[in-house]
Amino acid sequence: MEHTYPRQLGLDRERKDQWFPWIAADPMTGNLVCIFYDSRNFAGNDMAETFVALSKDGGQTWEDFKVSDFAWPADGYPGFAPGYAGDYIGIDILAGRMYPVWTDTRTGVLLTYASPIELDTDSDGIGDAHDNCTTFATTPPSPPQLDVDQDGFGNICDQDMDQNNVAGASDFITLRACFGKQVGPGACGGQPGCVVADPDCAESDFDGNGVVGATDFSTFRLRFGLPPGPSGLLCAGTIPCP
What is the separation of C-alpha 64 from the centre of its chain, rounded to a whole number of angstroms? Predict the structure, then answer.
């Protein structure tokens, strides 16, 4: 493939190019990532850097950021036909770990570079690959990563108390029976020596505040009919998932 620049065609020099996109989807979290070359930062449209765009909502909105630390003269590669800037670029992502790969000529020859990144989709300070709820952040005093049934899906995004992979009618019956019950300090939060008398009620404490209350009911209503998660843990769905 060949990339021809506006300055070579005598076109508007203020136009900037973005080219050779490569897109990937995270099967664990649903995030989309796209890598591409970009000349946005150069007035002459004669240099390029490598950017990645991220979508957390199925492609409805995107945010992008630079992943390369070097700008290269994007007229082509030494030893190749003039104007050739080949498609030696790609990206993949799994459980929040993103692996952008590209080529540039910073050393005077064509070499490949990578910049592995672990995303934090819910901005809770825990990278997706280690987060049992990648799109739901727990807030204090709730214990972070609280997972009473140890299935790899944190309480905040696991309304499936009967383990049939969906929040349904039987789970609502459990929630209603547990409503108003105290289930320990933050449902114990994995504290050593802490015993929860009613595990089902501890699972119903989605926000981890130690009592099954109105916020738990609201959370269940919003997620009725949905599977647990998403979780970035590779063991999610098995018990126990450490």
Answer: 14
The number of distinct structural domains making up the chain is: 2
pLDDT tens digits along 39-90: 999 988 888 999 999 998 899 999 999 999 999 887 666 666 666 666 789 9
Q: Is 112 helix (H, G, I), strand (E, B) or coil?
A: strand
Residues 198-214: tens digit of each pLDDT: 667 889 999 988 889 99
Pair 58, 136 in one domain:
no
Task: Please provide the DSSP assignment of 204-235 as one string.
Answer: T-TT-SSB--HHHHHHHHHHTT--S-----TT
The pTM for the full model equals: 0.71
Please check whether residues 30 and 58 belong to one and the same domain: yes
SS (H, E, C) 10-54: CCCCCCCCEEEEEEEECCCCCCEEEEEEECCCCCCCCEEEEEEEE
Residue 76: what residue type?
Answer: G
